[in-house]
Amino acid sequence: MLSQRPIKQAKTIDNVYGSAFYHLEAKDRTVDELRKKLAAKTDNQEWIDTVIHDLIERGYLKSDKKFAVNFVEMAFGAEKGSQYIRSQLKLKGIDESTISEAIEYIVHRDGICEMELLNRRLSNMRLESLSSDKLQATLIKYGFRSSDVRQAIKAHPVASTLSSKMQIKADKADLVKEIEKLARKLKGKSVIKRELQQKLIDVSRFDEEIEKLELDGSIDFYANCQLRLEKKRFDLSNSKDKSKAYAYLYSHGFNSDEIKETLS
C-alpha cells in the first residue's frame, strides 16, 4: 500500500490562502471542513482564522447559515427529506440550530411539503423489481420519516401491493425441502410447522406432505426424537428428570406418542 505524501507545511499566510483556494475550487465546503483542511497545512491558528474570516467577507467561503440554506434548497429540489439534510449537514460540522433554521426558512419560503416530495419521488420510481422492504429502506435513505414512508406506500396503488422480501422468498420455497431441512435439525412436526409459518411459507399441504415423507421413510420422527434426547443427559430412572426430558422433547415439536416411545 502506497503511503500518502506528507502535506507541505505553510511558511507564510499566503501559503494558507493558496491551500484554501485549492480546496474551495475542488468543491463547496463549510467553514468547519475548510478549517480542518487548513489545520493540516499549518498549526498557526491566527493565520487560519484570518484566512477564513477574509474569505467569508469576500464571498469565497459561505457562512454556515448561507451554506445550510443553499444545501437545504438543493436537497429539497432533489426530492430528499429533512432527515437526510440534517444528517449530511451535521457531518459537515454545522450545528443543529443553524440546520433547523435553514430548513424552516426554505420550507416557509418555498412552501415545501415533505409528503408531496415523498409522493413525487415514489411516483417516479420503478417498482417492478423491488420488495416492500427494499422500497421502504430506499425512501428512508432519502431522508423521509419512516411513518411518512409507510403512509405513502400504503396509499400508492402499486407500492401497496408489493410483497415483502420474506414473502417473495416464501413464495419460491419448496415445502418438502423446507420440512426435510428442519427435520435434519432434529425438530418435531409442531415446531417445523410453526417455523414455516413464521417464514410465511404456505403450510396448507403440510400434513399431507408430512404423511408422505413418513410413509416413504424420508423422515423418521421417532428416530429423530431419540437422537434429540441423546443430546441431553437425563436420568430416566428419576421421575423428575423424566418429566424434564418429556418437556424438553415436547418443546422441540415431538408429539406424545414419539416422546413416550423414546422415554420407554
Concise account of the structure shown:
It contains 16 helices and no strands. By secondary structure, it is mostly helical. Helix 1 crosses helix 3.
Task: Describe what this molecule looks like in 3D.
The chain is mainly α. It has three domains: 13-61, Arc Repressor Mutant, subunit A; 113-162; 170-263, no CATH class. It is 66% helix and 0% strand. The chain is built from 16 helices and no strands. The protein has helices spanning 13-26, 31-39, 45-57, 64-77, 82-91, 96-110, 114-123, 132-141, 146-155, 165-172, 175-184, 189-198, 206-215, 221-229, 239-251, 256-263. Helix 1 packs across helix 3, helix 2 (31-39) runs antiparallel to helix 3 (45-57) and helix 14 (221-229) crosses helix 16. The longest helix is centred in the middle third of the chain and has 15 residues, at 96-110. The protein is elongated and about 90 Å long. The N and C termini lie far apart (67 Å). The mean pLDDT is 92.
Terminal Cα separation, in Å? 67 Å
Number of strands: 0
SSE pattern: HHHHHHHHHHHHHHHH
> Over the alpha carbons, how many angstroms does the gyration radius reach?
32 Å
Count of discrete structural domains: 3
Proportion in helices: 55-70%
Mean pLDDT: 92
Low-confidence stretches: none
Beta-strand content: under 5%
Q: What is the overall silhouette?
A: elongated
Number of helices: 16
The profile of the biggest β sheet is:
none
Structural class call reads: mainly alpha
